[in-house]
Amino acid sequence: MMNWTDKLQRVKSHLIDSAKIQQMVADNCIDDIMEASKLISTCFDHGNKILLCGNGGSAADCQHMATEFVSQLTPDFKRQGLPAIALTTDTSFITAYANDYDFSGIFERQVTALGKSGDVLIGISTSGNSINIIKAFKAAINNGVATVLLTGSGGKLKDIASISICVPSNNTQYIQESHLTIEHIICDLVERQISI
Fold this sequence. Notes:
Blueprint: H1 4-28, H2 30-45, E1 50-54, H3 57-70, E2 84-86, H4 91-100, H5 106-114, E3 120-125, H6 131-142, E4 146-151, E5 163-166, H7 172-193
Parallel strand pairs: 1-2, 1-3, 3-4, 4-5
């Protein structure tokens, strides 16, 4: 069992290490973040929508980000709701399709059914190798849907995505902590860039 001093050091180390990764994001990812926010703003300005997909904690991030678009991020910045759908939330569809066909196709099928030219698909994958997101991105490309990836330092998805925001880390926790910050920044920029 850890004593108080060890626990305190563990907490401090986590916060410091996470902050170092976020500093690296500030040094390396700003151009990609700005490009993604511009793409998403243009999508909304043209009357299109955002789709989001991810697994586990990244699925929760999809729901969080979709909520910020449909509701709003900043209470004192009034705007209309923006159309964003987290493809992680329809449990009836996800369980039916995974049971009857294959879990790897749960996002691909929804992108094919819901995605239209001019839409944007945001995929969140800490590894960059999630098979169901790879298939969704390929379906998006075939349907004229642009893709934005939030990932870590590696993976196959970054070579498929229209825009890749790659957190320079292999530590899932730190990647996820940076992803949340990036998601809030994108929502903040989009609110201030949209013309509708």
